[in-house]
Amino acid sequence: MKNKLLIFLLFILASACAEKNTTAVSGPTSEELQLTSWNDGATRSAIEDFVRKTTTEGSTDFIPEEDRIAVFDNDGTLWAEQPMYFQLFYAIDFIKKNASDHPEWSEIESIQAILQDDLKAALDGGTQAILELVMVSHSDMTAEEFAQSVRSWLQESRHPQTGKPYNQMIYQPMVELLELLRANGYKTFIVSGGGIDFLRVWAEEAYGIPPYQVVGSSLKAKYEEQNGKMEIIKIPELNFIDDKEGKPVGIHQHLGMKPIIAGGNSDGDYQMIEYTTQGSGPSLGIYIHHTDSIREYAYDRESHIGRLDKGLDDAARLGWLVVDMAKDWKTIYPE
After folding, report:
1. Nearest-10 crossing angle of helices 86-98, 126-138
2. How far apart are CA 326 and CA 290, in angstroms?
3. How does pLDDT run across 135-147, given as a tens digit for each residue?
4. Which positions ≥6 away from 103 have C-beta within 8 Å?
5. pLDDT digit string, tens, across residues 1-14
6. Pick the CATH number of 42-83+170-229+240-328 from 3.40.630.30, 3.40.50.1000, 3.40.980.10, 3.40.190.10
7. Which of 9, 103, 169, 282 could pair with 61 as two cysteines, CB 3.0-4.6 Å apart?
8. Residue 285: beta bridge partners?
9. Through-space distance between the first and last CA atoms of the chain, rounded to whole angstroms
């Protein structure tokens, strides 16, 4: 009798612990996660309908969970990018802060222009000038030193026009979309022209996307001893540019699977959306169109950053969804 009572008590205790553990890890269900920062209308409905039909068993468009992949550009798609890429703000601040320790920079014209607060002259050299700024601010340090430098910059720096920390200038409607997709079995990836190491520092906290689900442009690195410890050292040599035709290549090399959903905001994302939506089977291409000059910025065909021209012309013909920020979003940044 005592043994039976003991077994019964152990069963009750185990059941209580299991119930407690289940409660501890439970989160919002897919029904509770909604696009509340999106206005009602055709755009929101199209996104919700696509998620519903691709995740409902028995639907003719059902996609098994292991195949549910969604990829998104970062600059201008998940966070703001005006008046210039935020990573370039980081590079400029880094150069100004560390110039006294690098006399060799005196021979680099773009850096000297930065030190004289002549941004126009610094960027007149185009892609080569930008690469010079990125090289010196992202290399010749360990991977952890670089990550700490980015963390400190994000804590200390503010956007020149909004006064917000850069990592608070993420788009709340897109954060909700990422959460909705993950709640429905989609794996969400960033595929950005920005630096992969720069993004990996903060993407998980901002978007819920872990470092191993970030694809981006990169410098080369080496593994060597430094101060008695083996370290990953970032070196000033270009490894990969994850932009335009590079984005499908980056997806192939890092993910090994074609996505079901792709979102971007510029012609630099055209090939990624094209790659995702061509062929058979359900797919969704999304363009974020910056139309809100009051709450954010309005730009497209003539912009020096995030130019959207060919994509805007071809979206309707190719069946891609164009999100009108002014019309489709109730809010821009998290409150």
Report:
1. 60
2. 8
3. 999 999 999 999 9
4. none
5. 444 433 333 333 33
6. 3.40.50.1000
7. 282
8. 262
9. 61
